[in-house]
TrEMBL record:
PANTHER family: MESENCHYME-SPECIFIC CELL SURFACE GLYCOPROTEIN. Residues 717-744 are annotated as: Disordered. SMART domains: Calx_beta (SM00237). The keyword Repeat applies. GO terms for cellular component: membrane. It comes from Hymenobacter gummosus. Keywords: Calcium, Repeat, Signal. One of its GO terms (biological process) is cell communication. Residues 1-24 form the signal peptide. This is Alkaline phosphatase.
Amino acid sequence: MHPNLYLLVSATFALGLSAGAARAQSSSQGFEGAASDTWTYTATPATYNVPADNDQWAILSDVGTTGANGVQAPPATGTKLWGMRDLQGPPTGDVSIWHFLDFAPVAVQSGSGAATTVTFKYFSNAFDTSDSLAYAVQFDNGTTWPATRTYTQLSKDTRAWTTVTVSIPAGSSHVRLRLAARQNGNDDWAAWDDVALTNAAPALPTLRLSAATAVVDEAAGTVSIPVSIQNAGAAAATVQAVLVPGLSTATAGTDFTYAAAQTLTFPAGSSANQTLTIPISNDTQAEAAEYFTLRLQNPSGATLTTGATDVLVFIKDNDATAPTQGRDIRLNHLTSYQNGASGTNSAEIIAHDPTTQRLYVANSIGGKLDILSISGTPAAVTLTPVASISMAPYGGINSVAVRGGVVACAVENAAPQSPGAVVFFNQDGTFQKQVTVGAMPDMITFSPDGQYIITANEGEPNAAYTNDPEGSVSVIDFAGGLAGVTQASVTTVGFTGYNGQAAALRTAGIRLYGGTATAPSTVAQDFEPEYVAVSADSRLAYITLQENNAIATLDLQTKQFTGIRTVGFQDHSQPGFSLDASDESSEVLMANWPIRGLRLPDALASFQVQGTTYLITANEGDAREYTALTEGVRLNNASYVLDATAFPNAALLKNNNALGRLNVTNKLGDTDGDGDFDEIYAFGGRSFSILNASTGAVVHDSGDLLERLTSTDPTYGAIFNASNSTGNPVRKNRSDDKGPEPEGVTTAVLRDTVYAFVSLERMGGVAVFDVNNPAQPRLVQYVNNRSITTGSGDQGPEGIVFVSAQNSPTGQPLLLLANEVSSTVAVYGVQQRGTVTANRPARRAEPLYLYPNPAHGGTVRLSRAVSGTLCDALGRPVRQLSQADRLETAGLAAGVYVLRADDGATRRMVVR
């Protein structure tokens, strides 16, 4: 080619490129500080980055933290992003204010190269309901934002980079963009990146549901579900809304009307929401909150926003009433005594000695044994301090028991994993002697006949799980009184005999999971005794193994364990076992969910009815939380993956207004070992259970009664599921954990009736039940002495003691409550009402029939609806029934079963 011709072609080609580049308008900002970052912006308020306070509003290399509350965001591209976290903090004077990035107006070019879209990317994590993340676009050359402008809300929990595209309307002279946020809290954060003004083909409109959940009262008549459109196009767009099977407890045609798929149409050019209106039925049946799921599908002329296509609609029942309280006895608060400032003192466990009319209080935080005298009349009781004994020379006090002026304290070693002690004092607190017991004695009691002192030695590991002592029970021979007690009087019984039975124990439902992957705990190390109850004849001790979800039985004469049985779990999908599972939904939504609640009992007590011994357990729940092993995780955590087959609606379950905030265990539920969870197990039953002490069979579980009771209480419903912290109570802030957390339990016989008293650790107070029919306890009363507006009153009940009339200083029965958080001892007088019916006739159960029987698979129908337990031939619980008129035999092995109804009826069932 001729050199001049080459130069001419080259110049022409270069001019063509330049002209093309000029026609394709673009402006961008990637926060990289590069020459390509041409779209200028102004930050209001000014940039700040205070890592010590997690307060960030600045260009960052990443934002957020990995772990239980989310995933960390790297830049979408490049090495930088605009990050924000805890926008209410020291830089803003701890005031919640709007934060803006205002991008300067850019003139829109003319011709085919003119900019057609505004795009940006954002990443959000766990923004709360009250937080906001939004944007606004103006198509003019204004220097200030108008007072009235339209913000488009962004998803508050994408956990991934999401692109937003906004079309520039024809005829626009300029484009300017505002990104806006208002937020507090350092466990939720967001980021922006890759802001650009580009020339691109017109994007299809995007359709999305405005929220992932909706709540409607069943009396409202209808519920409205808005669907929004972004980037409205020149043509109309449509989308179908359909019912989704699988995640629903409401019935179409009965609870709401939705016969077939419905189509929503968005007119051409319209950016207005379209609304799906669904009729709701107002029935007269008292029931749990019900829900159903809708999904957007088959869009035409539009696309769907990922993660915003499903909505869970709650129908809140308006027929339920507060549980009836029989009030045949009444608890009246007489006084509360504070044994020291809360926070630096505690009143954890209390013991009463009728021979001296003194109370002995385990003040574990203060490191003291506090001694009080109690006196007064049925109308007024006085607690007077006698002495306060420092436990520093002995270790840390965990529990106390007293009998006949002898005070026995369970004391943890200063090196907690080393053997602990029982330290004896006289009635005035003068040291007498001490003996060595197992590691971490957590509870101590005298047997009813006074022949034994028993301690439950929890044996917890250190944080790194490098020192894990064996759990044990120590039995002290006290037949000769304190004078006869020596170290030789102590027998510490461990669980080493079970070390070769781990597989069989797990199969039987015992939780064994302690230790690390390289050094798993032995069975003896994994068992952690929590609490002891002794049979009326002082022959057997029953010990809760809380973290193991089990009860051990110890023969006090042979000093041998005779059995370890699981206490099972709640099936929260069944009627009568609903729960309020979210701390973020403003409504109390007692609903059934596809989850199970591990009972994990703390305290227990034994009682007898017609010669049969029963156990009542307070199903508090507990999780192991150590540096080397933390089993608790939020259900919405990215590491907690739900099996797609078992939970096809996992994204909705993980929504914070559904189950996303619920604390669950990551040590149970992966049934096939493939790394995801096929079953969901939460902590605690939120209930009490009554078990047959001989067989271990659950004869009754209170299910959702305690939450229904407290949520409907005319006074304390205002602080339903509030924590027991020392600040002002916050309603529902424990709904995502273990709810009311039943902690303590004791029983008493008044006249001809056995009563059970169950304390609620979080909300506070005591619920009283008539348990003369163990299969059908009857609610008597709920009382509380906590402020509903301030951090005052009795908070955090733990120890609970009943004082009979003959042992009471007032001649009236008393109930004593040790409140750990407020460091107070509360005294309630027990007033009896009504007449004695010494020989109450036994109720005869209505006959119960099963058919077909024998069963050959499929459904077995019951002649009437019953609540009860299906047991196998060995008496082990297999299924729990709650007002069921049928049961499915699928999954049951061939054999003989017994259905034991709570009303006393029994019927044998054969499966072939």
